[in-house]
Amino acid sequence: MAVDSKCLDMLSLAILALVYLPGGTALLFSEVQCPNPAQHCTQEMFNRVMENQGCLGCQTGCQSGFIMTANPRYYVDTDDPSGHYLYHNIAIASNVNVSEPQWLCLKGDACHSGYFPSSMGDMQSCSWCGDGCSKCTSFNNCERCFAGFSRNAHTLPGGQSVVTCSHSDG
């Protein structure tokens, strides 16, 4: 008897109705689809709105020919990082954009410009370098900036040195 992938996704959703994240945080699945679901995921399980987390997208990996890539538009700046807002009666952390999946699948088998190789568990992934950075080895450790940006070395409170990119015009 053949079982299609949509049926398997729903079965996975039913079995994994409660997933624990690092730190013991419970993640509740809903039936509310993400407003802009990620494409080319190996499973659709995380293309649903999760309480506090919003849309995680392709957290289980990507189809062949695509690489798992962090979405820099998932997190947003907020004056109230501990606050929440409602999306279809589901509480979402105010520093998360429910319209943007956390993980995308981009075409290719290597990280695109502005991202560096990383991993999530045993899966190869790409993490974002930071605003305006075209090449880096880690977040806020920029080696080269996109046109219109310039490198800016500074020290964070606590002594950590970082190199970021800022708009050249100010």
Straight-line distance between termini: 63 Å
Low-confidence stretches: 1-27
User: Number of helical runs?
Assistant: 1
- Along the chain, the helix and strand elements come as HEEEEEEEEEEEE
What's the gyration radius in Å?
18 Å
Strand arrangement, largest sheet? 6-3-8-7
Would you report the number of β strands? Answer: 12
Q: How many domain units?
A: 2
Average pLDDT taken over every residue:
85
Q: What portion of residues is helical?
A: under 10%
Largest sheet: 4 strands, mixed
What would the principal axes of the Cα set say about the shape? globular
Strand content: 35-45%
SS content category: mainly beta
Short description:
The chain has about 170 residues and is mainly β. It has one helix at about 5-15; strands at about 20, 25-30, 65-70, 85, 90-95, 105, 115-120, 125-130, 135, 140-145, 150-155, 160-165. Residues about 1-25 have low confidence and may be disordered.
